[in-house]
């Protein structure tokens, strides 16, 4: 991959983790995933989204940037790449069972956690009224010796958390953005401090297919993707006694 999307091998350098425990509460009725680049959600939580969607959850996905800088080739036209990535994103979302895909269209690498982004995210939260929000862990910066977390991941994760707590649930914040909604739970992906695991056996095949949709990031030699995705899911699963899982840092905002 280009290095823009969250590395598929992310998590190998987390170090000792908490004792594996499953996320409780079953399948939510609605979930909102907020991510930076067109492939981020598929890599980060695609198995969870697919598993939940298959079980009847209404999944909304917000992608903040166009991903037009996600290449190492100077000959690639950024706008052509943005169009290709939008098509890949739509195909992947369909595979996962995403019911509502929203692209905010920010320039790649330039998204800011400012008032306007928070207002947009608060509006989505209040419209969707999710039981669970999934987003990147903004505190995760350097993973081991081989991966520096992309700035967009950290910025979008921080903006998502700021939109959820406290803004979306307080009427004085962005009153024009709709009726307040308190989000009960946030799951942070790409974290150095995983605390809960979600079983994704039912959604693993869809995750493999969704990640494979991002040909612009995989090149012509993408056959390895399925093997890597399945291996990572198996590694995560072993922490919680499962055959396949995705790990998150859980934040419970209501009891």
From TrEMBL:
Its EC number is 3.5.1.-. It comes from Aciditerrimonas ferrireducens. Keywords: Hydrolase. The keyword Lipid biosynthesis does not apply. InterPro entries: GlcNAc_PI_deacetylase-related, LmbE-like_dom_sf. One of its GO terms (molecular function) is hydrolase activity. Pfam families: PIG-L. This is PIG-L deacetylase family protein. It is an enzyme of class 3 (hydrolase). PANTHER family: LMBE FAMILY PROTEIN (PTHR12993:SF28), N-ACETYLGLUCOSAMINYL-PHOSPHATIDYLINOSITOL DE-N-ACETYLASE-RELATED (PTHR12993).
């Amino acid at each position: 991959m280009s290095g823009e999307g969250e590395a598929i091998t992310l998590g190998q350098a987390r170090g000792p983790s908490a004792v594996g425990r499953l996320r409780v509460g079953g399948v939510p009725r609605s979930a909102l995933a907020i991510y930076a680049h067109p492939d981020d959600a598929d890599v980060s939580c695609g198995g969870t989204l697919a598993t939940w969607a298959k079980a009847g959850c209404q999944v909304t996905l917000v992608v903040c940037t166009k991903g037009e800088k996600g290449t190492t080739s100077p000959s690639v036209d950024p706008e052509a790449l943005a169009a290709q990535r939008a098509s890949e994103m739509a195909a992947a979302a369909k595979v996962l069972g995403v019911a509502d895909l929203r692209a905010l269209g920010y320039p790649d690498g330039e998204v800011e956690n400012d008032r306007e982004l928070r207002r947009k995210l608060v509006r989505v939260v209040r419209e969707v009224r999710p039981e669970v929000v999934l987003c990147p862990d903004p505190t995760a910066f350097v993973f081991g010796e081989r991966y520096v977390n992309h700035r967009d991941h950290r910025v979008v994760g921080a903006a998502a958390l700021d939109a959820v707590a406290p803004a979306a649930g307080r009427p004085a914040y962005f009153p024009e953005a709709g009726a307040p909604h308190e989000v009960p739970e946030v799951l942070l992906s790409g974290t150095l401090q995983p605390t809960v695991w979600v079983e994704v056996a039912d959604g693993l095949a869809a995750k493999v297919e969704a990640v494979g949709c991002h040909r612009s990031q995989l090149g012509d030699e993408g056959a390895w993707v399925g093997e890597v995705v399945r291996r990572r899911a198996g590694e995560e699963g072993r922490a919680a006694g499962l055959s396949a899982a995705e790990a998150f840092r859980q934040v419970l905002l209501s009891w």
